[in-house]
Write a structure and sequence with these properties.
alpha+beta; 10 strands; 3 helices
């Protein structure tokens, strides 16, 4: 009986925490997005104020269904988990034009923040993103130069940090020219912009 009571209280507090995080996001007027993955759900809050172009870009890809069926194709424990560009067969999905790099917005690449992946060119980010699994200050903006631009943070995980922790610990291997690929695909089954009423 005590066990059942404890389980019920745990579920109640978990639900209350869920509501609190979502309500706080709604109060700030920020977009909230749910990533339903093969290892559990991750809920992220976008910073529409400090990273308006990047947040809008991500939101548009979500609305278009771009992320549905993509994988976390690069997973490095102690660094980050990266996804949004490839399907399970490692076929790259087509993207729109790159978005301006907003890494100079004051947001830091801290643990559980969401940032844009890019090439060596500062303003080359399209659809791929990553979630920092530790504080990665070396990725922050330092100067408006090729070497100093940094990687634009545009949101953070507000629910599902345990899922992020599970993903970062998966076994990886080299697949063709790709390194750090999970041996069992970690799939983003669906990405959804949550309506205001659900926040």
């Amino acid at each position: 009986m005590r066990w059942l009571l404890l389980a019920a209280l745990t579920a109640l507090f978990a639900f209350a925490g869920h509501g609190t995080a979502m309500a706080a996001s709604a109060q700030r007027g920020h977009t909230v997005i749910k990533l339903e993955t093969s290892m559990g759900d991750i809920v992220v809050e976008l910073d529409d104020e400090k990273a308006p172009k990047t947040a809008a870009n991500f939101r548009e890809y979500v609305a278009a269904g771009h992320y549905d069926g993509t994988i976390f194709h690069r997973v490095i424990d102690g660094f980050m988990i990266q996804g949004g560009g490839y399907d399970e067969k490692m076929h790259e999905k087509p993207t729109r034009e790159p978005v301006e790099n907003e890494a100079n917005n004051g947001l830091r690449n801290e643990k559980y923040t969401l940032a844009m992946a890019r090439t060596m060119s500062p303003h080359s980010a399209t659809a791929q993103f990553f979630i920092n699994v530790k504080d990665n200050a070396f990725l922050d903006h330092r100067a408006p130069t090729m070497q100093g631009w940094g990687y634009a943070v545009f949101g953070k995980v507000i629910e599902g940090t345990d899922v992020v922790d599970k993903i970062k610990a998966v076994r990886t291997a080299t697949v063709g020219s790709f390194e750090n690929v999970p041996t069992t695909p970690v799939v983003i089954k669906k990405a959804t912009v949550l309506p205001p009423a659900a926040k």
